[in-house]
Amino acid sequence: MVWESLADLWRTRGVVNRRRLLLWVGVAIFAAAFGHVGCAENVREPRTPAPGQASVKILTYNVNYGLAGDDATLQAILEPDADVVLLQETTSAWESAVRPRATAYSHVQFREGPGAGGMGVLSKYPLREQEWIEPPEGGWFPAWRMVVQSPIGDLQVLSVHLRPQLSERGSVVSGYFTTPPVREAEIAKYFQALDPSLPTLIAGDFNEGRQGLALAHLQRRGFRSRLSEFEKDADTWRWQTSVGTVESELDHVVTDDRLDVLDVRVLSRGNSDHLPLVAIVTKAAS
């Protein structure tokens, strides 16, 4: 075919071709413009753990499928010295680049997914009950559930990479309007796999802003997106186009109320189109 599907470019060649994809940027600008509607009026001050209080520092980062081995992006993964690192859009090349440098982590695992659907996890603490969850119809990438045996007790973690705002025919415009229900169906399926007896953190690339259907689905089930509690306006994704820089908040850290979140922040590091998020969590008071 003379004209390649934009969706196929995204899935099979990954973000190397996002510059071409984002020439179709009109609706992405809408997402940037309206991604912060409904932001919290007041933001919380970050806290440090109290003396003797156990905590876990978690980093989530979509590293960009096409940048395997990029030094600045590797530094963005490792220099924050998180206890648990959740990576999206990894590949075998990314795994080869990360493993030799992840010497601070005793537990390192990667899973390959379709196209840009791979994931990695680095942990200083043991991991168990890992489950690779295939997406529902219309979804593109799997999710990864794990239980971290952390200083605050067993912590259930779900790493997600939800459907991009692209239609099956590769249109950003129609995809913006047609894919929100797909992301809601994805998170609904992944949520069903969770163990309700465990404190839970869900993090990753949601490919939607604070008013998205996937986040609303979690909110109805007692979960909260935490970045908005600490930053009124927070862009986690950016891309340079011929009409300027497009920015939006597509990455999130979501928890239930059994976790007390001391801080969530966006780090301006790395060369991925996404930015890493770091959260510090502890056990909520009984």
Outline of the structure:
It is built from 9 helices and 14 strands.
Structure report:
With 286 residues, the protein is an alpha+beta fold. It has helices at 6-13, 18-21, 26-34, 71-78, 92-98, 172-178, 180-192, 213-219, 227-230, and strands at residues 56-62, 84-90, 107-111, 118-123, 127-133, 143-150, 153-161, 200-205, 224-225, 237-241, 244-248, 251-255, 259-266, 277-283. The strands form 3 sheets. The protein has a 6-stranded mixed β-sheet with strand order 3-4-2-1-14-13. A 6-stranded mixed β-sheet has the order 5-6-7-8-12-9. A two-stranded antiparallel sheet has the order 10-11. Helix 7 packs parallel to helix 8 (213-219). The longest helix has 13 residues, at 180-192. It is globular, with a radius of gyration of 18 Å. The termini are far apart. The model is unreliable at 1-17 and 19-34 (pLDDT under 50).
What Rg, in angstroms, do the CA atoms define?
A: 18 Å
Output the number of helix runs: 9
Distance between the termini: 61 Å
Unreliably modeled segments: 1-17, 19-34
Largest sheet: 6 strands, mixed
State the helicity in percent bands: 10-25%
Strand content is 25-35%
Question: What's the average pLDDT?
Answer: 87
| Structural class by helix and strand composition | alpha+beta
Q: Spell the H/E element sequence.
A: HHHEHEHEEEEEHHEHEHEEEEE
Strand order of the largest sheet: 3-4-2-1-14-13
Shape: globular
Number of strands: 14
